[in-house]
Amino acid sequence: MRILIIEDEPTLHKTLSEILDEFGYQTDVAESIKDGEYFSGIRNYDLVITNYILPDGLATEVIPSIKATTPRTPIIVLSAKHNKEFEIAALKGGADDFIVKPIDFDILLARIEAHLRFWGSNAIEFGDLSINPTEERVIYKNREVEVKGKPFEVLTHLARHRDQIVSKEQLLDAIWEEPELVTPNVIEVAINQIRQRLDKPLGITTIETVRRRGYRFCYPKKKK
């Protein structure tokens, strides 16, 4: 799972990144709203941690752009002091949690796990098709379809970002622990397995290829 940290205090974002990496998360660090918008524009994140006050504005300015593209991505806001107005503004602005510094990292990790568990435990449903990330199950018209491993993770990631074009690089970053050690053709293999195991036998189309840009979850296709 990949987490974006938007924090301008070097010691804190370094510590956050190291602790999260130690617990198996992949992290990117941005030190401003501008950088945060850049990263969220090129990658899909499972969770975002952002400081409330940043050098070029407030967290409430970056939250909408993240939620606009990935509305279910949990966002945790950090604050140097407990300010009721800050907390209300952050939560009303789309944040999912608000934590006051100094950070208790055990509590932060527990909250991250809770948010990710809540997000990942809900079945993703589109009409007759249900994808359950927790149980790694795909159900179509009450029939279970055998899609496991990386193909299942690719299918789930694309389904969570339905109607968005997701590039091979974004899929690699989101799913593979060490994306730099694998080649993009593993995505093609995973997509082909989804089509062979799910689409072809059932006569449906779940993923479409967008030439030179990536893939898009398209089930069910919208009527024109």
UniProtKB/TrEMBL annotation:
Q: Where is the OmpR/PhoB-type domain?
A: 121-219
Quick one: signal sequence residues? none
Q: Does the keyword Acetylation apply?
A: no
DNA-binding region(s), chain positions: 121-219
Which terms are listed as keywords in the entry?
Answer: DNA-binding, Phosphoprotein, Transcription, Transcription regulation, Two-component regulatory system
Q: Does the keyword tRNA-binding apply?
A: no
One MF term from GO for this chain? transcription cis-regulatory region binding
Task: Specify the Response regulatory domain's residue ranges.
Answer: 2-116
Report the Gene3D superfamilies cross-referenced here: 3.40.50.2300, Winged helix-like DNA-binding domain superfamily/Winged helix DNA-binding domain (1.10.10.10)
What is the name attached to this protein's record?
A: DNA-binding response regulator
Instruction: Read off the lineage from the record.
Output: Bacteria, Pseudomonadati, Campylobacterota, Epsilonproteobacteria, Campylobacterales
